[in-house]
Amino acid sequence: MLKSEIAVFSVAAMFICNDSLNFRIEIITKNYIVKDKILIAYSIPPQGLLELEKDFDLIYPDKEFFSTEELIERIPGCIALLSIFNKEVPKEVIEAGKQLKIISNYGVGFNNIDIETAGKKGIVVCNTPEAVCEPTAELCLALILSLSRGIAKCHHGLKTNSDFEWGVMKNLGTRLQGKTLGIVGMGKIGKSVANKAKAFGMKVVYYNRNKIDNSSYQYLNFTDLLEQSDVVSLNCPLTDETHHLIGEKELELMKETAVLINTARGPVVNEQELVDALKRNTIAGAALDVFEHEPKIHPELLQMENVVVVPHIGTATIETRIEMGKEASENIISFLIDGKEKNRVN
Fold first, then answer.
1. Which of the residues 74, 250, 265, 273 is marked catalytic?
2. Which band of pLDDT confidence, cut at 50, 70 and 90, is reported for residue 208?
3. Active site residue 312
4. Which of 171, 234, 251, 266 could link 291 by a cystine bridge, Cβ 3.0 to 4.6 Å?
5. Which domains are seen in the chain, by residue range?
6. Could you say which DSSP state residue 36 is in?
7. pLDDT computed for residue 109 by the predictor
8. Span 173-187, mean pLDDT?
């Protein structure tokens, strides 16, 4: 494994000194360290990059982020790229990185990166799976609560309608206790969601590519999970196999009283078929943090009272943003300085 190379060179500086009217020239030699360059694709909190800054020269964007053209222009002299989950790293950028050895993605998803091209060029690609786990699981539970208890609906109603109805039999929702939560994708985020849901008294079942040994939660095949769950939570990565994992056929399997939660990736759900199912009352509602063509959202979703939408904020806490920076930095330091691969995904 190659380590980061630090070039050291000497320069001579001449200073003229006045010593009892006699001029003399002193040659002072100083050492300067030239650090390898790392391109930071997005303006993220610098607190998360302090360790990286010690050993490398970090190139930040002047504005919010570098465009694709700017990445192509600046990446040739860089040894690493710290990319971000919502901005693409296409083939053209990777091929322009003549010295590029590693791409550390700020986020758990990495479908924004051309993995095939990176692999062909021998470039390591990493992600940040640890930092994103708890905040994403928290948001998942928040969406479940908001949808089941009508929090978003009531909030909007009170703020926009002076005649919004109050009453003992108005604005009724459903409780979580005793309900079945079906988790699709029992990775770190899925497990955290399961543990939090258990505290609400929910029965947790799961479907995963591989059954987990010694799990305290019941494994069901995909069809059984859809048929039995009151809440279906998508916590799986986006892959060729999970693209449009949920569509008309799968929604038809769910209970009419069930709801769908997506904090995974937008294209895991066929958005048009979800809209059609909601219009037919095939399921009771949906809560979505991610969208198939984000930042564009299907306009009909925005008009439905039984749909809660938020703008991809699963990891959007200041603490998490700093921790993600630290984890992305550790990936780079581990590889370039310590010769170890951490969180590699390709």
1. 265
2. very high
3. yes
4. 266
5. 34-131+318-336 (3.40.50.720), 133-161+171-309 (3.40.50.720)
6. P
7. 86
8. 97
